[in-house]
Amino acid sequence: MFSAPILVLSLGLSVFAAPSKRQSADNGSCRALQTTCAASIKADFSDVFNHKACIFGATCLTPVDGFLAAVHNDRGLSGPAPQSVNLPRVTTSLFNSISTDGKTVTQQNFIDGYYSSLDATSGPYPTDAQYVIELFARLQAWTAFCGAAIPFQNFADFFQYSSSISSSNCGVTSTVIPIDTSPFPTGTVFTTSTPLNTFRPTTVPFSSAVDSATVPLTTSTVVVTPAATVTAA
Fold first, then answer.
1. Residues pairing with 225 in the sheet
2. Which long-range contacts (CB under 8 A, 24 or more apart) does 77-81 make?
3. Which of 12, 87, 8, 2 is nearest to 42 (CA)?
4. Quick one: pLDDT band at residue 213, thresholds 50, 70, 90?
């Protein structure tokens, strides 16, 4: 007869040996991208968005700032991890290494880019491409290019602003968008004025402090508290 401690251990191992479907599909690929990214970038993270391993790693370990913090920890650096909003944007050369037309990133481009980013370490590769498709869908939802290829500026916006600005589209309504990083003062809150039933990609320009990139909105009106109301075109 098995003793109670052995039975408990057996049950524990059974639970541990049954990872979620998503974890199984990942197959350790996200961690491999994180490791490659940490070994490739400069200590000040100024080139982090110029490495494919970092780009794709930031899509599987989210938010982007969470990925940067993990890489910062891997490198054993002191002080706070950098925030994506303060880092140089995705470069055109990096974008062109993923895109096949130099204008947009398609779902197939994203899948190919994710897998090829793991070639340097010979994997491990995801066991199911659906896992990578779901990662791309996350970018589509934030940029509001639902079921479509994502243009360069919007693709770059995701990596720079998605940790600071919520934007859930593609059938999901975003209600509150907390902002606590530059260029807005700490505590500034964006709230959507009405629920969203249908969506047309809409953008408003950021101030010159963060360059001319644009960020998608989930309604035609955004209320800035306590500042003035901003109405999108």
1. 189
2. 77/43
3. 87
4. very low
Q: Which residue has the tokens 């920890």?
A: 73
Give the C-alpha distances (Å, rounded to integers) separating 21 from 27, 29, 132.
10, 14, 13
Top pLDDT among 232 and 39 is at 39
- Inter-residue contact 29 to 129 (CB < 8 Å): no
Residue 118, classified by CB atoms within 10 Å of its CB into exposed (0-12), middle (13-18) or buried (19+), is buried
Longest dimension (CA), the chain: 74
pTM of the full structure: 0.67
CB–CB of 126/22 below 8 Å? no
Nearest CA-CA partner of 142 in 82, 84, 72, 71: 84
Residue extents of the structural domains in the chain: 20-231
Contact indicator for 200, 186 with CB cutoff of 8 Å: no
Q: What are phi and psi of 225, to 5 degrees?
A: -110, 125
